[in-house]
Amino acid sequence: MKMKFFSCALLLLFICSCGSSTEDPAFLNDISGRYLFNADEELEIYIENDSWFMKWRGATKIKPLKVGDGVYFVKEMNEKIQFRKNPTDNKYYICLVPKTDDSQMAYDFMKLEKDEFTASYYLKNGQFNKALEAYKSIKSNDSLSPIIEEAHLNRMGYRVMNNEKNMVHAISIFKLNAALHPESDNVYDSLGEALLRNGDTLESITNYKKSLEIDSGNRRAQQIVEKYGN
Questions:
Q1: What span is annotated as the signal peptide, if there is one (predicted)?
Q2: What CATH number labels 119-228?
């Protein structure tokens, strides 16, 4: 019985030591900030009461469990992570600990600068040129990324226009889609519709005509141009 009690006490001591909230202040200062989780999604590391927490996908206070020297288990990700500085760019990264011994550690999620944001952040906050540049960068790195898919952006534009009733933001989304997919007749059709609903008839007709140049069989565009184009 004494041996069993002693074993349980040791196990409890181990768990408490691994989950200890005491961290080096310099380490906390280095790791705090926003990290690029994917091409258009962030996670944030913040400090509270000399310990660090994570904000990610709606969860505002994720507390990873320390399971080793500089190694933490994030239950919400089902991953072990480490913080490392990449010697090639001298930036901090969150690194996923490989699940097999023969795999190399990769620099997965880069820490962002204070003035560096995601493409969707720039778009939502009315910084169209920066948003366009950021989305073009995503397209250049991964032309198949769902983030820059025409249909995805088109649905986003209609959701903002119909549900959120934010015409200015919706028009920005449709303009972005047209800039990313200039070969599509539908991007100009959607932009034309948003502009027309916002009262900009002249610019609307210009975009409907662009749609017709690509697809002359767009009957809806033809009808609107005939109605408002003169």
A1: 1-22
A2: 1.25.40.10
DSSP one-letter code for 100: S
Q: Tens digit of pLDDT for each residue in 52-63?
A: 999 999 999 999
Distance of alpha carbon 39 from alpha carbon 112, whole angstroms: 12
- pTM (global) more than 0.90: no
Q: What DSSP designation does 64 have?
A: P
The type of residue at 100 is: T
Of 182, 190, 192, nearest to 214 (Cα)? 182
Residue pair 167/197 in contact by the 8 Å Cβ criterion: yes
- List, for residues 175-206, the tens digit of each pLDDT value: 999 999 999 999 999 999 999 999 999 999 99
Place of tokens 């004494």: 2
Strand 51-56 and strand 41-48: the pairing is antiparallel
Rounded Cα distance between 27 and 122, Å, is: 30
User: In 3D, which of 56, 57, 54 has the Cα closest to residue 31?
Assistant: 54
Q: How deeply is 198 buried, as exposed, middle or buried, from its count of CB atoms within 10 A (0-12, 13-18, 19+)?
A: middle
**Sequence spans of domains, the chain:** 2-110, 119-228
